[in-house]
């Protein structure tokens, strides 16, 4: 099968036509999916450009935002049939560890991350456990629906389960990339009042269309100006702030924008440390700081229904599509910071 193979850091992906296709003979509980589309994510760019270690050493197929059509099933699989449209979550859990058994399968101690622990979605086909995939209704387009696997589901978990946004909560989203814009969408669905902060005017315009009640252009502002603007809009500070970049400087801005008793949710990843953290303020003002990773399996059906019923939109967020043969050009789009989400169309 055709696949884009990650071999070395800082080298282009190698598109080959003779990568081994999955074989379902002799296995149980499995489904082979013809991958329709796979989203391009900054996590992939971290592996490719910055040497973030993958769970499995290269050569490896990256990609973890997949949608497709069922091609073949094991004889024991009853819930899916050939031709079904499906979504493949970015991560599958073991179902047996402490975290899984307490309802936190998104931080499963034995999780398998597609495009890191095993081959992912920048290929024509993949074999996955039937228990871990979901039907996509006809109302959800396959090409754009692939981003539900991460770019939609990760913000959903951050807003609903970690941030616990309630109607009327003043919320701040710092960073309006794919994750940040979908934080805005999910906050709107939850009834919160999102304020979007970014340095790119076009992304703030999209945030406004997706439900931001206010936007702040941070390009010409220092930290004090950004925090002051948020505090003024919210009458003293936001209830909840989401940092969607993964930068200690913007993490600090998010924290300082909160009211007494506020909650900060770290959604963006950074390997850097934040020096000079004011733990006294956290204690004395009863502040809350928490991380948010991925999404629980149990939440995917709800997210799919929200997309099906247009409470959350996916089509406007996919701003570029490339065939698998041009995947390196797609990564260049991300490197330049253009658009919102790019997807790879994996079938010839």
Short précis:
With 348 residues, the chain is of the alpha/beta class. It contains eleven helices and 18 strands.
**Count of structural domains:** 2
Distance between the termini: 11 Å
Tell me the strand percentage band: 25-35%
Mean pLDDT level = 95
| Count of helix runs | 11
How is the biggest beta sheet arranged? Answer: 7 strands, mixed
The overall strand count is: 18
Q: Which geometry do the CA atoms define?
A: globular
Q: Over the alpha carbons, how many angstroms does the gyration radius reach?
A: 20 Å
Which fold name is given in CATH as the topology of the largest domain?
Answer: Quinone Oxidoreductase, Chain A, domain 1
CATH superfamily of the largest domain: Medium-chain alcohol dehydrogenases, catalytic domain
Q: Which architecture of the largest domain per CATH?
A: Alpha-Beta Complex
* Poorly predicted runs of 5 or more residues: none
CATH class of the largest domain: Alpha Beta
Write a structural description.
The chain is an alpha/beta fold and 348 residues long. Helices cover 28% and strands 26% of the residues. It has two domains: 3-150 and 295-345, Quinone Oxidoreductase, Chain A, domain 1 (Alpha-Beta Complex), CATH 3.90.180; 153-291, Rossmann fold (3-Layer(aba) Sandwich). The strands form four sheets. Strands 3, 5, 6, 9, 10, 17 and 18 form a seven-stranded mixed sheet that branches. A six-stranded parallel sheet has the order 13-12-11-14-15-16, with helices on both faces. A three-stranded antiparallel sheet has the order 2-1-4, with no helix packed on it. Strand 17, helix 11 and strand 18 form a beta-alpha-beta unit. The termini are close together.
């Amino acid at each position: 099968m055709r696949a884009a193979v990650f071999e070395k850091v800082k080298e282009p992906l190698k598109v080959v036509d003779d990568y081994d296709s999955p074989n379902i003979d002799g296995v149980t509980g499995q489904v082979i999916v013809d991958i329709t589309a796979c989203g391009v994510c900054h996590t992939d760019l971290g592996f490719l450009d910055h040497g973030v270690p993958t769970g499995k050493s290269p050569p490896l197929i990256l990609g973890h935002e997949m949608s497709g059509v069922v091609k073949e099933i094991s004889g024991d699989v009853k819930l899916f049939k050939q031709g079904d449209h499906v979504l493949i979550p970015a991560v599958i859990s073991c179902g047996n560890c402490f975290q899984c058994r307490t309802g936190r399968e998104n931080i499963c101690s034995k999780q398998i991350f597609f495009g890191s622990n095993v081959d992912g979605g920048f290929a024509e086909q993949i074999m996955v456990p039937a228990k871990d995939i979901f039907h996509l209704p006809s109302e959800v387009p396959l090409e754009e629906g692939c981003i539900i696997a991460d770019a939609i589901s990760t913000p959903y978990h951050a807003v609903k389960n970690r941030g616990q946004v309630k109607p009327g909560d003043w919320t701040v989203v710092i960073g309006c990339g794919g994750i940040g814009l979908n934080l805005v969408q999910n906050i709107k669905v939850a009834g919160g009042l999102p304020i979007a902060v970014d340095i790119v005017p076009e992304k703030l315009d999209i945030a406004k269309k997706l439900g931001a009640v206010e936007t702040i252009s941070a390009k010409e502002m220092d930290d004090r100006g950004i925090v002051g603007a948020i505090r003024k809009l919210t009458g003293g500070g936001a209830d909840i702030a989401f940092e969607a970049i993964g930068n200690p400087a913007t993490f600090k801005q998010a924290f300082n924008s909160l009211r007494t008793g506020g909650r900060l949710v770290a959604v963006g990843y950074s390997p850097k440390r934040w020096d000079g953290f004011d733990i006294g303020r956290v204690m004395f003002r009863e502040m809350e700081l928490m991380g948010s990773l991925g999404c629980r399996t149990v939440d995917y059906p709800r997210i799919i229904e929200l997309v099906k019923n247009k409470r959350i939109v996916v089509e406007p967020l996919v701003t570029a599509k490339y065939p698998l043969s041009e995947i390196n050009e797609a990564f260049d789009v991300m490197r330049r910071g253009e658009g919102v989400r790019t997807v790879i169309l994996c079938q010839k």
